[in-house]
Design a protein that fits this description.
Blueprint lengths: L23 E13 L2 H6 L6 E2 L5 E13 L12 E13 L2 E11 L2 H10 L3 E3 L1 E4 L18 E8 L2 E12 L14 E6 L12 E14 L3 E9 L14 E22 L2
Parallel strand pairs: 5-6
Antiparallel strand pairs: 1-3, 1-13, 2-4, 3-4, 4-5, 7-8, 8-9, 9-12, 10-11, 11-13, 12-13
Length: about 270
């Protein structure tokens, strides 16, 4: 009897799989802050195959309030399987002379998004993420996207604060949008072995480039920003704490994923 399913658990029908097969369609509201960390700290988190960016220490934090679905979109009417939020840090780097980014730290609040991220090479952990929403109506509870609107986000994990950020909008239509998370993202897919004597010989260890299609994006609002990264037991993201903060951005972005490029095996 054949068991089916793109991911575990696998069954006769495959309906119980935590992650359904691609394509995966995404749309979400974003808060992004461009900033700089200590150059040596940024260099220390780069995987093999990536070199430091000439603009030393260039990083960004991203908070996203997502809705996603697989082909057919059944998750849209079952929001517990489509809604999630995440917070992550990207570091700018070079791959064979090309500007890229890489994600060394990321938290997400749903198990399916955690597993889907591992499949794609994102080192996701579970966390609790909150982000200001806007609804497009005139209300004191809606900051809107016009100058003066104030937005914020927080990330915590295991009961401890990881990060917080704010963006106060100064322009409702930024021509360029965020700079530091704009280059393509290159991560490491890593799956270890448990076999005795082979713990240092991973089953999978490869540098991969994210591939997406059908990208859509709203106008970008931008303004002044704040950012704090906090130390916590079992965490190291705070080595990338800001030494200089650039602009903050608020926008909506959507795309589809059904591919992944292997740049090279790392051994």
């Amino acid at each position: 009897m054949t068991l089916r399913g793109y991911s575990v658990p696998r069954t006769q029908t495959g309906r119980a799989s935590l992650v359904p097969p691609p394509p995966w369609h995404y749309v979400g509201d974003f808060l992004v802050v461009d900033y700089w960390a200590e150059p040596d700290a940024a260099k220390s988190v780069l995987p093999d195959g990536l070199l430091p960016h000439p603009d030393a220490g260039r990083c960004a934090v991203v908070c996203a309030d997502w809705q996603s679905c697989s082909e057919g979109g059944d998750e849209i009417v079952d929001p517990s399987r489509s809604h999630y939020k995440e917070f992550f840090i990207v570091v700018n780097a070079l791959l064979d002379g090309e500007e890229v980014t890489t994600c060394p730290f990321i938290w997400v609040d749903q198990d399916f998004a955690l597993a889907r991220g591992w499949i794609q090479g994102f080192p996701k952990k579970l966390g609790e993420i909150w982000m200001t929403r806007t609804f497009g109506v005139e209300s004191p509870a809606d900051p809107g996207l016009a100058p003066g609107g104030r937005h914020g986000a927080t990330c915590s994990a295991r009961g401890r604060a990881m990060a917080d950020l704010t963006v106060e909008i100064e322009s409702g239509n930024d021509d360029e949008g965020p700079r530091h998370n704009a280059p393509p993202i290159v991560n490491v897919r890593h799956f270890p072995r448990l076999a005795a004597g082979r713990h240092d010989d991973p089953q999978v260890h490869e540098l991969v480039r994210a591939v997406s299609r059908d990208r859509v994006m709203s106008k970008v609002a931008s303004g002044s920003a704040t950012l704090n990264l906090y130390p916590a037991p079992g965490e190291e993201h705070d080595i990338l704490a800001p030494v200089k903060i650039g602009r903050g951005y608020r926008f909506t972005f959507g795309y589809t994923v059904d591919d992944l490029e292997t740049v090279k095996e790392i051994r």
